[in-house]
Design brief:
The complex is a heterodimer. Chain A is about 70% helix and about 5% strand. By secondary structure, chain A is mainly alpha-helical. Chain A folds into two domains: about 70 residues, no CATH class; about 260 residues, ABC transporter involved in vitamin B12 uptake, BtuC (Orthogonal Bundle), CATH 1.10.3470. In chain A, strands 1-2 form a two-stranded antiparallel ribbon. The longest helix of chain A is centred in the middle third of the chain and has 30 residues. The relative contact order of chain A is 0.21. By secondary structure, chain B is mostly helical. Chain B has a single domain, classed as ABC transporter involved in vitamin B12 uptake, BtuC. Chain B has twelve helices and no strands. In chain B, helix 10 runs parallel beside helix 12. The longest helix of chain B has 30 residues. Chain B starts with a helix and ends in a 19-residue tail after the last helix. The chains are: A mainly alpha, B mainly alpha. Chains A and B meet through strand 1, helix 6, helix 11 and helix 13 of A and helix 3, helix 4, helix 10 and helix 12 of B.
């Protein structure tokens, strides 16, 4: 008997969900094995992971708090991926957004909130968007590969942030810690009621809805999808590919910039290096897992935010290094990627004689 | 700058360029077979950690090097599995590999942070090291550097003059034609991925065993990505990889010297140098219009036969 691979004629339908959860289960099993190898109780570990992520109101709030920046970054990344532009630079665009917002907050501390907050969002969008435009311009003008440029701009963006908080913006009263002064009250996004969640959640929902509408209901969104699926055909149809690339990268950068702005203003209330928690990289995983669909991105962002919160729990209870979450992110992405094979192909056993 | 200082700096450039050289050669080999592996950064970290742990426990640096190469190949095999067997997107798979490798290296490495290991020591070559200037720059290093001097021309000759080398290039350019000519396309691609993985693992192991002799999480600090960029800069040619790697080695060494000399420039600005240079190098390569020299089937999967 031999294994035979044939292409599927009709889509897999609900089987696609099965593939996704199968891949998740496989990643969990491998991660559990890793825990066991380190001499930690594997099953208790996995249970702690879930409890830590979704087991209490406090945990759920944490999840939502972390899901906000991941969602915004992933939304931007997904828009770029739709056009087959490999924007891996959300992390750097996030940093620039945080820098832009902090600049506004520190330069105009006397402005009332109704002016200062919009100014911060504007500065964040500009800074993040411009950071996103750099690779776009290089790609269009000189055909420079955007994968590496966006990645290098991540490193540079983070170093600019460090340059500012270790240098000119360092709070003289911080006992030498690299951080800015606390933002004035007018520069802080308030909390929703008695929860720890801030109004950034609403910004998230608004952006998600706007991007979903843009992709599905507008001419530009349609052109984006068409160009992404076949660039050559799009050129023949005279779609403005260059302008689309610029638009997509500026949008992508602005969204990541807003994530940085919300993180500085809503969560930390200042700028400090710990703001760079790798949300920009998680966003790439999220965008791909969600197959670039805004609603799915919301779900995947919550899941991976949950993973981060759960791993913090593991860290406290079982002294598992924080990198455990990164391992799981990588594993999940790899297995889902491999699992997608079964959406396009089917395997059949073939008897030796029916060749 | 005095002549002595310049020579010392150039020798340091060779040393800090060597891990990048190994990784670049590995990526060239993989890409020549038509597979884009963006997992270099993760593979280097795993190679560095495996090398560190094995050398520390056995006390034999060579075992560490071999372990680094082996673990590099193992992680690269995951990329091979996802892309060559399961038809996954090569960009995303490579990125996931970097995330996984970075995670695994910190997961296992956190216990070793700040610890030291035995490693490769300097071994000036007789006669050669006594040549004025050149001897000091090139021949007063550890054995792994001498190995890398041989590796680049060897790979060049392999790709250019051997049957297997020609086969590997054919598979990277036009897999369909290669298959029609009777070449086992997938076998060549696997070879490209695995051999490349070994070299990237060596590059990582060089960092922990010869460059620093100690472990910190995130030891490779973006060198894997620089290697990916250098492959474009070298136009996929092993010979030019030496030039590119030492250019970056020079910038990194220069920046370390400046910091050691107590410059007033903030370290965050100095640390940007290699990353900025990477972008500059890419712009330069594209401006020269040679980006089109990439293997024609780079990043394109081979569909399974019905």
């Amino acid at each position: 008997m031999r294994l035979r691979v044939t292409k599927r004629q009709e889509p897999l339908g609900w089987g696609a969900c099965l593939v996704f959860f199968g891949a998740l289960a496989f990643s969990l099993a491998v991660s559990a094995a890793l825990l066991a190898l380190q001499g930690k109780p594997a099953f208790i570990g996995i249970r702690l992971l879930f409890e830590g992520a979704f087991g209490s109101r406090w945990a759920l709030e944490d999840c939502l708090l972390k899901a906000v920046p991941i969602f915004l970054c992933a939304l931007g990344v997904a828009v770029a991926f739709r056009l087959q532009i490999w924007n891996l630079g959300a992390e750097g665009q996030f940093a620039l957004g945080a820098i832009g917002a902090s600049w506004a907050a520190l330069t105009f501390p006397a402005l009332p909130g109704s002016y200062l907050l919009p100014l911060m969002f504007l500065a964040a969008a500009l800074a993040g968007g411009l950071w996103g435009l750099v690779p776009a311009v290089l790609k269009l003008g000189l055909r420079v590969n955007e994968i590496i440029v966006t990645l290098m701009l991540n490193y540079i963006g983070i170093l600019i942030l460090e340059y500012k908080v270790y240098g000119a913006w360092k709070d003289p009263g911080s006992f030498g810690f690299p951080m800015t002064r606390e933002f004035p009250a007018a520069a802080i996004v308030g909390n929703i009621g008695a929860t720890r969640l801030n109004w950034g959640l609403l910004v998230c929902l608004g952006c998600g809805a706007a991007i979903a509408l843009f992709l599905d209901r507008t001419r530009l969104g349609y052109e984006l999808k068409a160009s992404g699926e076949n660039i050559r055909a799009a050129r023949y149809a005279r779609l403005p590919y260059g302008r689309l690339v610029l638009l997509v990268m500026a949008l992508s950068g602005a969204l990541a910039g807003w994530a940085g702005c919300l993180e500085a203003s809503g969560s930390l209330h200042r700028l400090q290096p710990t703001i760079m928690a790798g949300y920009g990289y998680t966003a790439i995983v999220v965008a791909w897992l969600a197959r670039l669909n805004p609603l799915n991105i919301g779900i995947a962002a919550l899941l991976l935010a949950g993973l981060r919160v759960g791993v913090e729990n593991l860290q406290l209870d079982l002294q598992v290094p924080a990198a455990f979450g990164q391992i799981m992110e990588g594993l999940i992405l790899l297995t889902v990627l491999a699992g997608n094979f079964f959406k396009d192909y089917r395997l059949r056993w073939r008897e030796p004689d029916d060749a | 700058m005095t002549p002595e200082l310049t020579i010392a700096l150039l020798a340091a450039a060779v040393q800090s360029g060597t891990p990048i050289l190994y990784a670049t050669l590995g990526e060239i080999f993989t890409e020549r077979a038509g597979v884009l592996n963006l997992g270099v950064e993760g593979i280097m970290l795993i190679g560095a950690l495996a090398g560190f742990i094995v050398a520390k426990t056995t006390g034999v640096p060579v075992y560490g090097l071999l372990a680094g190469g082996l673990c590099g190949a193992l992680l690269a095999a995951v990329h091979g599995l996802v892309c060559l067997v399961f038809q996954g997107n090569q960009v995303v798979s490579g990125l996931a590999l970097t995330i996984l490798g970075t995670g695994l290296s910190s997961f296992w490495g956190t216990a070793f942070i700040g610890q030291r290991t035995v490693g490769f020591e300097k071994l000036p070559l007789p006669l050669l090291s006594e040549i004025p200037v050149l001897g000091e720059i090139f021949f007063q290093h550890d054995p792994l550097i001498y190995l890398s001097y041989l590796l680049a021309p060897l790979m060049w000759a392999f790709l250019r003059y051997t049957r297997w080398g020609l086969g590997l290039r054919a598979v990277g350019e036009t897999p369909a034609a290669a298959a029609a000519a009777g070449l086992r396309v997938l076998a060549y691609r696997w070879a490209g991925v695995l051999v490349g993985g070994v070299l990237m693992g060596f590059g990582g192991a060089y960092l922990s065993l010869a460059y620093t002799h100690l472990w910190t999480n995130g030891l490779s600090a973006g060198r894997g990505w620089i290697a990916v960029a250098l492959v474009i800069f070298t136009f996929w040619r092993p010979g030019r990889a030496i030039l590119g790697a030492y250019l970056f080695g020079g910038v990194m060494a220069f920046q370390l010297r400046l910091q050691a000399m107590g410059t007033t420039l903030p370290s965050s600005l100095l640390l940007m140098l290699p990353y900025g240079l990477t972008i500059a190098v890419l712009v330069f390569s594209s401006w020269r219009g040679r980006g089109s020299e990439a293997p024609a089937a780079l990043g394109v999967n081979i569909e399974p036969r019905e």
